[in-house]
Amino acid sequence: MLSKFDSSPVFTGTSADYRALPRVSNSDLTRLKEEHLGYGSLPSAQFSSEKAKAFGRAFHQHLLEPETIGDVMGELLPDIAPNETRQLSTLMETIYNDSFCKRYLQQARKRRAHMGEALREYVVLFTDPVSQVDCKARLDLVYTSPKRQNALILDFKTTSARTQAQFLESCYTYDYDRQAAFYLDSLRHADAGVRSWVDTRRFRFIFVGVMKQKPYRLFAIDATSIPGFIDYGRKKYRFWLRKWQEEQERPLYQPDRPAILTTSYS
């Protein structure tokens, strides 16, 4: 199954195909961290987390793949309340009322080559050069200038933050630094046969946060402009890739395995 996708310069499979790829994603690293640190072990916490993730997936589907909205609503939120449906519509309107976001989202749908190339829900297959672990990433939106001198990555988040400072704090709380580094490196180290950004001179990674409550403000964080943000995120994801490798090498029966892992990204 893997060769089916690795031989193609552009991944054309479904979301289920992507999830089935035997490669490590940033979400896999999040689950590994939660397992080792005991996060979400209570049933109530698990339910709350799954509900939030389902809403997040529906949000991204509305924004980036509106042609599949019917399918995702039935699959992820079969019992969605009317107020949540209205909330999603309001979030979409808020984003499209912003000229910066609207420009790149519309360009991703029109794909006018002379204006640069904007790709949404773009899948990158790559191999981490340090651990040699096969990885995968799915970027919300990546824009490349016509001469491929610059690349811009946009990642959209819903947030409970009410100020720019709170949104920045959440970027550290939810390991967005790790995600940004993982996604940037996916472009730099894309596998042979996959579209490459090795000659790109400048990368920018911007998190766009939209408030889930009134007044539905937008926040933007340029992750690549924050000193140390990407470097620390890179240490984080490579730390957890090493732990993932250790998991694969351990015997199935581990009676003495510690329940809690002390993290160190040095």
Residue windows where pLDDT falls under 50 for at least 5 positions: 1-8, 42-48, 255-262
Structural class based on helices, strands and sheet pairing:
alpha+beta
Question: Under CATH, the topology of the domain at 29-39 and 98-249 is which?
Answer: Lambda Exonuclease, Chain A
Order of helices and strands: HHHHHHHEEEHHEEH
Q: Give the integer mean of the pLDDT values.
A: 81
- The CATH first-level class of the domain at 29-39 and 98-249 comes to Alpha Beta
Largest sheet: 5 strands, mixed
Strand order of the largest sheet: 1-2-3-4-5
Shape assignment: globular
Measured on Cα atoms, how large is the radius of gyration? Answer: 19 Å
Describe this structure in words.
With 266 residues, the chain is of the alpha+beta class. The protein has a domain at 29-39 and 98-249: Lambda Exonuclease, Chain A (Alpha-Beta Complex), CATH 3.90.320. It contains ten helices and five strands, in the order αααααααβββααββα. The chain has a five-stranded mixed sheet with strand order 1-2-3-4-5, sandwiched between helices. A hairpin with a 6-residue loop joins β1 and β2 (134-144). The two termini are 36 Å apart.
